[in-house]
Structure formats: structure tokens, C-alpha cells
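Design job #97: recover the sequence.
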């Protein structure tokens, strides 16, 4: 069958230069509904036959045919109401004129899972057969109207070789199984909940199960299973605990109970994204399930907890209430990310979680919102929906929900979500439906707030403060502006909830905290009873996802970094202090280090702060973040300034670092919060010792590497060594490889650490690693661990005078595109940032994008990203 991501033009048979654009405003309700579907799989990696019986019903009064989507399907047979029909797919789709109101349409197709390198539809991964259908993968399994507003009840029968595939799983509840002769067996699964086809899933393989159970709030017993290779069973314990905690949390916080008798999770090695919330059968990238102290860092443990929760929470926010069309993706993703963020905050440290989430937003979403791929949380159009699983839809979408929760308050927000779930259970709905439920449940008017869904770009807030000693009054004037983004100019002022407080400089006391609602282009707020000019603490807790320009001296920022009682604001003051020193250092060539060193000393010696927070507070902002604050990014200048700052901090406070390095050592591993915090701080401290230039630094790092009883400290030390040029660097990398090369997830870390290194030869090292016998284009984790990390390494990626880094990435994109277009497309945005760099670098980046779009058989995925990046 034709390859639908390069769909030939129906008239000419040529590949269109740019793929067609799908628009939100063109949404039409489906012509035909499919309330029931029966699927029968004869599974085989080389050739699987799929028989689908669709019970279709005409939707409304019309005479349009039934149109079934299909992609790379070999049609073997079709019938309508039992009568065979002669029909050939047109542009991949099957078009069937039907007379009556209800019909039974049956098709049989053949597909080839073993040759499915896109990892969409039914594919083979490490001896397993598994599926990925979101967003439009179901059409690669069978002919079906592949859109999320068609909800069907699924009955699934699978038959497969009993030795190769002893375990057969699908959505819903298992109802029967048996022998099929000739060494084959079968299983039947029925899912009583109508669902869109993107939530369909099937897994067949030789899997072992970590089995547990959970009693729901109404007393129902749910069987839980995490299915992995036998040898990986011990590494599923943390995921199981996270699942049980998520189930209890969703009952307690949102009143949401699980609804089936079984809940299964399967871990697979080859997966395009993180995980997938298929009804009752979540499928995970194994990196978000398998953790043990020897192979996983604390960040990995936290990611497992967060992603398990995320997928579980989708059972309500996504599955029971789903999306009408893909423009509404943030309806389920923004809400579910917000839910998983709150869950993780409850399981660990709320301030540290908030800092991590904001760092992620600033690293991934702010640049997206400021570049050629900027789009609203609810996009208006797309060429390939896979390209819209973005930081904007997910993370900015979560910030939008967080702001609503803040405006409504906890009770109002809960009333809003209760109303949303009750009103729309079993429906496919829109972001607008969600906002309306919030308005009604919370009793607020969100008319202007809706702009958060439609206007792209990160709002900027400028603050000025005037103190009038005579009237003991402070006037805070705030103005907002929203930058133009592709296709959007002259934007309207938005609703910006800004938690703000004023601090008395003398006493160190907080005078007042208010939630200021900035809704106009400019507004003034007054604070009475202020005898002296206070220090402004604004956007506390990062209450709005905006950039604030508030003129505060380094001295005031140092004051806030030591005295603000909002932990996020305290962290933020420190970051701003560091950013100011670094950007001024880049501009003037003279780095002022004193204020930063003193502020770091204050935080690092403050006994009231926990280690995890201190680790966040004292870390320098990344090179990329510093670049984001500049008009034109100067990768070399930033690198030099940051290294010099790191060195100055390392040297000035060396005794403190050595003391902390010892104090944070632990005799044994535990996941207890204090121990996790100690490990986090220990790694930051080690990097300062290394930066100090101390002679024994490499030896100390190697000792940490070699003696570590956990991966957090081992990888932390490896990262520190990888940045340098010591003999220990090579020894550690070789030892790490020898010890872990049999474990794919840890080997990813070996690739990633080298690609992230601040080392003058990183481009060459990455090029060589791309040819390493353990490197493969067919595994997305491996590709991301090498090239994704490299493109995020600002200094290395932009260093080569002739644009070597850009060429390396573009070569990768072109080589990967025919194998896995989704993963290839996700590598394009770093090149699309060309406007942020000097003319020479920008020109070279553009040239690579032009080389990409000139490629004759480009996928729709890469074509969209590369052509938009050039515009
Ligand atoms: N809905 C999933 C993300 C996801 C989307 C597409 C995929 O296809 C390759 C896979 C996963 C989530 O939010 O977790
Ligand atoms: Zn999700």
C-alpha cells in the first residue's frame, strides 16, 4: 500500500510540495458513527491479518458515503451486510456508498509489524508485538474513520503462536481464551467503555507480570499488572507503588475512581514518546517503568512516578472524557500534566517540583513560543498532528489550568472539575466545554481568560514601582505586551494572575501578598502604609507563565534570595541575580562575581533550607537559558562567562564545597527525601569543586564515580568528568561502558553524557558515536540520547566555525526520516532557532533547513517542521 505520509496527489500522482493544511474551523461532525467494532487478529510479526467488523450508523440526514481511513494496509476482502464488495482504496481510504441507516461493514487486511519502523500502528519491539494508535495510528491497523469523536465499544479476539506470544493483552476485561491448534492460542478481550480508536491497544509477547491489586473507594477490587521481560521484574516495584499512589490520589483529590476490573501496563523498548494511556492497557517506553538504584537516577525515579501517574490520570482526563478533534489536544494533555504535577508535588517537595516544572517550561516552551513553530495552546491548523505534541500543548496547557485553579480557588476548581466530568462523561468535547464547566462550577467569568487558548507567545510584563513617602504609599504599575507570532499580530491583553508581595528592606518582613489580576495593557495597584521603599517580589510561585521585567538591583535580588518566604521567588531572585551578572559579563567582557558568590554562600549555609532546594538555588542557569535572555545569542561568550563564574564560585567557596561533599555522602541508598536531596546537592557541589581547578578534582570525581552505590552519584560524577580533559574522563567512560553496555537504558546515558559534555571535541565525539556499533536509528531513545542531547548542548552545537553541528543534525534528520518520521521531525526545532543567532550562524542553520526541504521524498512530519522553520 502507499505510504500515506507522502500521499500522492489524487490527480497527478505526484507528491505535493507542501502537505495539505487541516483547520480547526473546518470541523464537521462525523457522517457515520461506529458504536460497535469486533476485531479479529491473526498475529504474526511478518504478516498479521486483521478482520474488522464495523457496526455503522448514519449520523444525521445525508447521503454521503462511509469513508474509512487506511494507511499501508493490504486489503484482502470487504463486505457490506455479508455481501462481498469490490472496492479499492483511494489515496489510502476506502469509500463505501451505503443506502440504509445501519450497516455491518467487514474488511480483512494484511499488515507487516516487523517492517513497521515508524512505530505507529502494530509493530514489533524486542520480540513483542504492540500497538501505538495516538494520534492517527489505528488507520495503519485496519480501515476505520480514524478521528477521536467516534466512540465505539471494542470486542477483540487475538490468535498467535503460543511459544512466541504466550501473553495476549488488549483493552478492557479478559473474557475468554483457549487453544487454537498448531501451537497457537487465542484470547478475547471486551472493553465495555466506548472509546475513540486512538485508545485501542494490543500486546502479544513473552512477558512476566508484577501483579498486585487495588481496592477502590467504592470497594471494588482491581487487578493491577505491570508486564515486562522476566529479568526486569524487580525493576517494576517503583512503578507499581506509583500506580497505587496515583489511584488513591485521584480518588482523594478529584473523586475519580477506576472503572475496569483490570489495569495493565506493558513496558516496551522502542517507543516514540514517553507512554500511552490506552484504556486499561497503558503502553510505556521502558525508561518510564524500569528503575533500580544501580541503573536509574533519582530523576529517573521521579519521571517514572510522574509518567505512571500521568497515564493513569488520563483514564478520566482523556479517556472517559475525550477530545472532539486533535485541535483540542490540550484539553486532555494540559489538564493531565497539571494533575501529574500536583501529584508529584504531593508525593515529594512542592517547591522543588515547581522549580523543576518552571525550568522545563522555560527550557522547552518559552523558546518554542518565541520561534517559528509558535502556536496557541489550542492550535488553529496543522499539517501533521504528531508535530503538535508540544511543550505548548502540554506544559503551557498545564499552566493555563493552574491559573484557572488559582483564580477559582481549591473549592471552586473542584466544583468545576466535578461538573466537567459529570457533564461530559462518555463524550468527545472541546477546550471550550472545559472552560464553560470551570465558569459554571467556579462561578466566575472566564471570557477574557480564554485568550490563553487562542493567543500564542509568552506575555511580557514590565513593572515599575514608585514610593511616595509622604502618603506612605507604593504605586506598582504593570504593563503587558504579547509578542507577534507566526500568523498572529496585535494581540489583546490577557488575564495575568500575579501573586505579588512587598518586603521591608530593614526588617526583612513581608508586608503584604496579593493576587494582582493584570487584565489591561497597563494597570496601577496601590499599597498603603509603606514608610520606606519596599522590595518587589512578583509572580511568586510562578503564578503566571510570563516573563517579568522588574527593575531590581543586584542588592535587592540578593536580599530576596535570602529572605523571600516564597521558595520559588527565592530561587527566582537567585536566578535573576546570576543571569544579570552573566549577561552583563558577556556584554562587557568583565564578569562581576562577588554578589553571586555571596548569595550562594548565604543559601548554601542556611540551615533552614533543605538540600534539594539548595541544589536548585545555587546552580547556575544553563547556557541555553542565558542565551534566551539575550538579543543575539553568543554561544562562545556565554560559555566563557559561565565557565568563569563557575570557576570563581568553585574557588571562592572551596572549603564549603568540600565540607558539603562529605556531609552529603550516605553509607547506603534510600529513596527517602532527605537522601535524595543530599545526592542532588552532592552532584552540584562536585561540579563546583571540579570548576575550582583543584588538582585533586578529577580524582575526587572519579572516586565518587567508582564508589557510588547508586546511579545518581555515578552519572553525576561521569558528567563532571566528561566536561574535562582528564585521564579519569576516559577511564570512567570506559568503565561505565564495560559495566552497563548490556543495559540499553543505561547505555543511553553513556551516549547522552558525552553528547551533553562541555568538551572542545564534542562535535567529533558525537559524529563518532553516531557510527558506534551500539548506535541505531531504529530506537528512538538511542537517537534522542545522542542527537537530542547534542542539539541541546548550546556551546557544542553552535561551536564549529563551519556549522559542523548543524550539518550533523541535518544529516541525522534526513537519514532518520524514512525510518521514523515522527522522531526525525522532533529533531528539527533546534535548527529553526536560526533567527536568534548571528548572521553567519543563522545562515548556516538556514542552509541546512533548505537542504532538508529540498529532499525529494520528505515525510509530512519533517516537511511541516522544516518549512515552517524557514518561513
Ligand atoms: N498521549 C500520550 C502521548 C503520546 C502521543 C503520541 C504517541 O504516539 C507516538 C505516543 C504517546 C501521553 O500524553 O502520554
Ligand atoms: Zn498525556
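Job complete. Output follows.
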Amino acid at each position: 500500500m502507499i505510504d500515506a505520509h507522502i500521499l500522492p496527489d489524487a490527480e497527478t500522482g505526484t507528491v505535493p510540495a507542501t502537505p495539505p493544511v487541516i483547520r480547526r474551523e473546518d470541523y464537521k461532525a462525523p457522517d457515520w458513527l461506529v458504536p460497535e467494532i469486533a476485531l479479529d487478529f491473526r498475529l504474526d510479526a511478518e504478516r498479521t491479518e486483521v478482520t474488522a467488523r464495523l457496526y455503522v450508523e448514519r449520523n444525521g440526514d445525508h447521503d454521503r458515503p462511509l469513508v474509512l481511513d487506511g494507511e499501508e494496509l493490504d486489503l484482502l476482502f470487504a463486505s457490506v451486510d455479508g455481501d462481498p464488495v469490490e472496492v479499492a482504496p483511494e489515496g489510502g481510504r476506502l469509500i463505501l456508498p451505503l443506502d440504509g441507516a445501519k450497516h455491518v461493514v467487514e474488511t480483512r487486511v494484511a499488515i507487516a509489524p516487523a517492517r513497521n519502523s515508524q512505530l505507529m500502528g502494530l509493530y514489533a519491539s524486542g520480540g513483542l508485538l504492540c500497538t501505538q494508535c495516538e494520534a492517527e495510528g489505528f488507520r495503519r491497523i485496519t480501515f476505520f474513520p480514524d478521528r477521536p469523536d467516534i466512540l465505539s465499544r471494542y470486542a477483540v479476539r487475538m490468535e498467535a503462536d503460543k511459544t512466541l506470544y504466550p501473553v495476549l493483552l488488549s483493552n478492557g476485561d479478559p473474557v475468554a481464551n483457549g487453544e487454537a491448534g498448531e501451537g497457537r492460542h487465542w484470547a478475547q478481550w471486551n472493553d465495555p467503555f466506548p472509546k475513540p480508536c486512538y485508545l485501542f491497544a494490543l500486546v502479544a509477547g513473552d512477558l512476566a507480570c508484577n501483579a498486585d491489586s487495588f481496592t477502590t473507594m467504592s470497594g471494588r477490587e482491581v487487578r493491577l499488572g505491570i508486564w515486562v521481560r522476566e529479568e526486569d521484574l524487580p525493576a517494576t516495584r517503583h512503578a507499581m507503588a506509583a500506580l497505587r499512589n496515583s489511584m488513591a490520589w485521584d480518588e482523594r483529590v478529584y473523586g475519580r475512581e477506576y472503572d475496569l476490573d483490570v489495569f495493565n501496563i506493558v513496558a516496551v523498548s522502542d517507543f516514540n514518546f514517553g507512554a500511552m494511556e490506552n484504556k486499561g492497557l497503558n503502553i510505556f517506553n521502558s525508561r518510564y517503568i524500569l528503575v533500580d538504584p544501580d541503573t536509574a537516577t533519582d530523576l529517573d525515579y521521579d519521571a517514572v512516578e510522574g509518567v505512571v501517574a500521568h497515564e493513569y490520570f488520563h483514564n478520566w482526563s482523556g479517556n472517559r472524557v475525550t477530545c472532539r478533534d486533535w485541535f483540542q489536544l490540550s484539553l486532555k494533555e494540559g489538564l493531565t500534566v497539571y494533575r501529574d504535577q500536583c501529584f508529584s508535588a504531593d508525593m515529594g517537595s512542592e517547591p522543588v517540583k515547581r522549580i523543576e516544572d518552571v525550568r522545563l517550561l522555560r527550557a522547552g516552551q518559552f523558546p518554542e513560543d518565541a520561534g517559528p513553530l509558535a502556536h496557541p495552546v489550542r492550535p488553529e491548523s496543522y499539517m501533521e498532528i504528531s508535530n503538535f505534541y508540544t511543550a505548548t500543548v502540554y506544559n503551557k496547557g498545564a499552566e493555563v489550568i493552574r491559573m484557572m485553579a488559582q483564580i477559582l480557588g481549591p473549592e471552586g476548581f473542584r466544583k468545576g472539575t466535578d461538573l466537567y466530568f459529570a457533564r461530559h462523561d462518555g463524550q468527545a468535547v472541546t477546550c471550550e466545554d472545559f472552560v464553560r464547566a470551570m465558569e459554571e462550577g467556579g462561578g466566575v467569568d472566564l471570557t477574557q481568560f480564554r485568550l490563553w487558548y487562542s493567543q500564542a507567545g509568552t506575555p511580557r510584563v514590565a513593572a515599575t514601582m514608585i514610593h511616595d513617602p509622604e502618603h506612605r504609599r507604593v504605586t506598582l504599575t504593570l504593563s503587558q505586551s504579547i509578542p507577534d507570532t507566526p500568523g498572529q499580530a496585535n494581540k489583546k491583553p490577557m488575564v495575568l494572575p500575579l501573586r505579588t508581595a512587598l518586603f521591608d528592606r530593614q526588617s526583612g518582613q513581608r508586608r503584604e501578598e496579593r493576587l494582582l489580576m493584570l487584565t489591561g495593557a497597563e494597570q496601577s495597584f496601590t499599597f498603603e502604609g509603606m514608610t520606606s521603599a519596599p522590595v518587589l517580589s512578583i509572580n511568586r510561585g510562578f503564578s503566571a507563565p510570563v516573563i517579568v521585567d522588574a527593575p531590581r538591583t543586584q542588592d535587592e535580588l540578593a536580599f530576596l534570595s535570602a529572605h523571600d518566604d516564597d521558595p520559588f521567588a527565592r530561587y527566582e531572585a537567585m536566578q535573576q541575580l546570576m543571569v544579570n551578572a552573566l549577561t552583563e559579563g558577556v556584554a562587557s567582557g568583565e564578569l562581576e562575581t562577588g554578589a553571586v558568590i555571596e548569595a550562594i554562600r548565604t543559601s548554601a549555609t542556611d540551615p533552614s533550607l533543605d538540600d534539594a532546594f539548595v541544589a536548585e538555588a545555587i546552580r547556575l542557569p544553563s547556557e541555553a537559558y542565558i542565551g534566551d535572555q539575550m538579543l543575539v545569542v553568543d554561544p562562545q561568550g556565554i560559555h566563557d562567562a559561565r565557565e568563569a563564574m563557575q570557576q570563581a564560585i568553585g574557588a571562592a567557596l572551596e572549603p564549603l564545597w568540600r565540607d558539603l561533599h562529605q556531609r552529603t555522602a550516605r553509607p547506603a541508598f534510600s529513596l527517602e527525601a532527605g537522601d535524595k536531596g543530599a545526592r542532588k546537592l552532592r552532584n552540584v557541589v562536585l561540579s563546583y569543586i571540579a570548576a575550582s581547578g583543584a588538582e585533586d578534582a578529577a580524582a575526587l570525581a572519579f572516586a565518587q564515580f567508582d564508589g557510588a552505590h547508586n546511579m545518581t552519584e555515578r552519572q553525576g560524577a561521569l558528567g563532571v568528568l566528561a566536561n574535562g580533559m582528564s585521564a579519569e574522563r576516559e577511564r570512567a567512560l570506559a568503565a561505565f561502558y564495560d559495566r552497563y553496555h548490556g543495559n540499553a537504558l543505561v547505555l543511553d546515558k553513556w551516549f547522552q553524557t558525552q553528547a551533553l559534555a562541555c568538551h572542545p571535541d564534542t562535535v567529533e565525539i558525537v559524529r563518532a558515536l553516531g557510527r558506534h556499533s551500539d548506535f541505531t536509528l531504529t530506537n528512538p531513545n538511542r537517537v534522542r540520547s545522542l542527537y537530542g542531547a547534542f542539539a541541546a548542548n548550546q556551546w557544542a552545537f553552535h561551536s564549529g566555525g563551519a556549522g559542523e553541528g548543524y550539518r550533523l543534525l541535518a544529516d541525522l534528520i534526513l537519514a532518520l526520516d524514512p525510518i521514523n518520521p515522527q522522531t526525525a521531525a522532533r529533531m528539527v526545532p533546534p535548527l529553526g532557532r536560526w533567527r536568534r543567532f548571528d548572521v553567519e550562524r543563522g545562515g548556516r542553520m538556514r542552509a541546512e533547513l533548505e537542504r532538508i526541504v529540498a529532499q525529494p521524498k520528505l515525510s509530512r512530519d519533517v516537511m511541516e517542521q522544516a518549512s515552517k522553520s524557514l518561513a
